[in-house]
Specification:
heterodimer, A: mainly alpha, F1FO ATP Synthase, 4 helices, B: about 250 residues, mainly alpha, two-stranded antiparallel ribbon
Chain lengths: ~80, ~250
Amino acid sequence: MDPIAAKYIGAGIACIGMGGAGVGVGSIFGHYLAAALRNPSAAQGQFGNLIFGFAVTEALGIFSLLIALLLLFAL
Amino acid sequence: MDPIHQFEIKKFFPIFHIGSTEIAFTNSALFMLFALLVISLLMIGATRSRALVPGRMQALAEMSYEFVATTLRSSAGTEGMKFFPLVFSLFMFILAVNLIGLIPYAFTVTSHIIITVSLALLVFLTVVVYGFRKHGLHFFKLFVPSGIPIYILPLVTFIEVLSFLSRPISHSVRLFANMLAGHITLKVFGGFVVMLGSLGFLGWLGAVLPLGLTVALTALELLVAFLQAYVFAILTCIYLNDAIHPGH
């Protein structure tokens, strides 16, 4: 296979990983919203935890995006 | 129409040499100084006439102070307030740099991994040095959670050590990659507008869609710029909490 083509295909495959992060982030915000509607008075106190969970989950998606960007532009 | 052309470092004038390495004043340094100037003017100007009923500028400064102070107090306790200058400087610097980077033709300092790694290593080394100075060898209790069955304790400790060591990587790459990806996306959609616009009248009609998307994406990037500064600050608070209270 042409190495350039292989590089682009690899970048595309690397982006699949972001789907998993999408599922995770959606689950975090969905559960936060569900819990916040059950007990709105406690919701504000958990905002920091929400952002922390979001950041940790999102990092994994960002890593796969980084691999794709490295393949496209850096290597 | 290269979407990563915007991240190019341009040399303005050399300052001095270390061996054969040239230390030069670049556009990155210029925008860092500019961010510093903006923050200083905002904070010094806002606190010059300290009124009991704050004006608009003073309310902004008080809000940002209270915002960071509440975050730090809730995640690292009142003992953590001694790190307030560090966390507040990090938050304001990253926020200012991210927001300035959104101005067209401006340079985004945080889109270079060397900047974010420096900031993340600063936090990491602060945690390690302060943890060992305050708790000595008890700092290692951070890696041994209590109440874990003895037969899986080695595995858990190994995972804890690994996650501790990978913190500066995820801490820096998150900010860097978010800014990089956001700005590349903006430029790619801007490129679509130009490409469609060169096709003639039908192209102009088609270019409305990516143009609208660019506007929407800029709004999203504003949110991301704030959120990433906040995430960086809150992770700093959580890591500092480990240095102050190492036992789980």
